[in-house]
Specification:
The chain has about 475 residues and is mainly α. The protein is about 40% helix and about 10% strand.
């Protein structure tokens, strides 16, 4: 992370600004289809959009009609198609390259999450079907290039020119943009494939190459249990921020208890205690999903059995080592542990977090353990809980002090059954866009015009996904102005 966070700077993930794509068409206010009389759409003109889906266009019209709040309706029209409009760089029958927005690279995690808002309509739209098939195939090839990498280049033979990665002390392979080992990156690959299968029953993406990549994921998870040795992964980076590197290239000591070591968090920050609990919970869940799809889509009982066995190991270790107690004695999930009995409590501000476990299907929304954990994360018990004049929410070390991540607010709304809380979350999102019509990575707790990442497709899509979900199941929440 280069630390250059300011109003609309777009400072990101530690990747140098010289590597970013210019995005005038994606970001300029363009009079395409006015969402309100006073707010022209900020979508690119139709001729400049990178991908078209008739099903998505119909969904925009359908859902927008249900949103009574004019500004929220305008933001929905801008945000829901943002991934398709601006980040799909190429699509063929067996390949798709989807960048994260203002970084011209494919993150395994981001690209999976960016397509998720369109899953429910994918089966009925040949264009979307092609896009999903292409991304699943591309991700499989990325994993086979290097399962320890989190971000990839469009050209698999190219070498990264991103300043933050060029001199990393790790094994940088062609096609890799950044090599931060994050358990959740591979979990999102598994989740995309299993979610697509459940939504479409389409066997086409589940090729021998896909199965090979799935086996590589299981093998990598096992390597990072580090039962017999530290495994093959090493990483160090020269940086003024300790969140960018690992102690002695492997991280702090652990007792090998069956949990998977994660060198970095979903925020791309280094872990402190190497067993990142929400990532391990997600790994167990997505391994169960892999077992199901391997059996149903391929009849691969050996892969299914291997995935299920590893899931059981992780679940057993989580039950024994993944929890902690607050000062009042109440039991919650820890954020990170080391297997020696030490635990860290905070929360990440991405989807994959303690407070995001219900959203990701890793905890029941009424599970008492998760409810206590989420309540603690959204309180002063969390050192990165932030409250200011513009709102309250979760922050984190990646962007710095006093910055709130809208993504965490959106995940909270997804997870809540309280209509009033959902509407309060939507108000926060609506009122902190700095009148850009988009969702940002962060905004300052007292001044929303001070934000990072003006073009962040994952966050935009998450708002669109929330509003589509509410329109399908709780439309009354949308039928009143906020």
């Amino acid at each position: 992370m280069d630390g250059r966070h300011g109003a609309g700077t777009g400072a990101t993930r530690g990747i140098d600004r010289r590597a970013l794509l210019a995005a005038p068409a994606a970001l300029a206010a363009l009079p395409v289809a006015a969402a309100t009389p006073m707010r022209p759409s900020k979508r690119p003109p139709a001729s400049e959009r990178r991908f078209h889906s008739a099903a998505v266009e119909r969904e925009i019209v359908r859902v927008k009609r249900l949103i009574a709040d004019p500004k929220l309706a305008w933001m929905f029209e801008n945000c829901y198609p943002n991934t398709l409009d601006t980040t799909v760089l190429s699509v063929t029958d067996d390949d798709a390259f989807v960048i994260t927005g203002d970084i011209p690279c494919l993150w395994l995690r981001d690209s999976s999450a960016q397509l998720r808002p369109y899953l429910h309509i994918a089966a009925g739209d040949p264009a979307l079907t092609r896009l999903f098939r292409g991304l699943i195939a591309r991700q499989a090839r990325c994993v086979l290039i290097d399962p320890y990498a989190n971000a990839f280049l469009q050209d698999p033979s190219a070498r990264t020119d991103l300043d933050s990665s060029q001199h990393d002390q790790t094994e940088m392979k062609p096609g890799v943009a950044e090599r931060k080992w994050e358990v959740d990156s591979l979990c999102y690959v598994l989740r995309l494939a299993s979610s697509y299968w459940r939504a479409t029953q389409d066997r086409a993406p589940f090729t021998a190459e896909w199965a090979q990549s799935a086996r590589a994921i299981v093998r990598t998870f096992r390597e990072q249990q580090r039962r017999d040795d530290p495994g093959p992964y090493r990483f160090q980076r020269s940086s003024v921020q300790p969140t960018e590197t690992q102690l002695w290239s492997v991280g702090n000591p652990t007792r090998k208890v069956g949990l998977i070591h994660s060198s970095f968090r979903p925020s791309d920050d280094a872990t402190i205690l190497p067993f990142l609990i929400p990532a391990n919970i997600f790994a167990a869940r997505t391994l169960r999903e892999l077992a199901a799809v391997a059996t149903a889509a391929r009849g691969d009982t050996a892969l299914a059995a291997d995935a299920a066995a590893l899931a059981t190991e992780i679940e057993t270790a989580l039950a024994a080592h993944g929890k902690m107690r607050l000062a009042d004695g109440s039991e919650i999930w820890a954020f990170e542990v080391d297997g020696f009995g030490n635990a860290l409590f905070m929360d990440d501000c991405c989807e994959l977090s303690l407070s995001g476990l219900a959203f990701l299907g890793c905890a029941a929304p009424d599970d008492p353990l998760w409810r206590r954990t989420e309540a603690a994360a959204w309180s002063e018990r969390n050192p990165w809980f932030v409250r200011g004049r513009a709102g309250e929410g979760l922050g984190g070390p990646h962007a710095g002090f006093d910055l709130i991540w809208p993504m965490a607010t959106l995940v909270r709304a997804f997870s809540s059954r309280d209509d009033a809380l959902v509407r309060a979350c939507l108000r926060t999102i609506r009122d902190t866009d700095a009148d850009t019509g988009f969702v940002h990575e962060t905004f300052h707790k007292d001044d929303p015009t001070r934000f990072t990442r003006p073009w962040f497709a994952w966050a935009n899509g998450l708002l669109g996904e929330l509003l589509v979900t509410l329109a399908r199941g709780r439309p009354h929440v949308l039928r009143r102005t906020l």
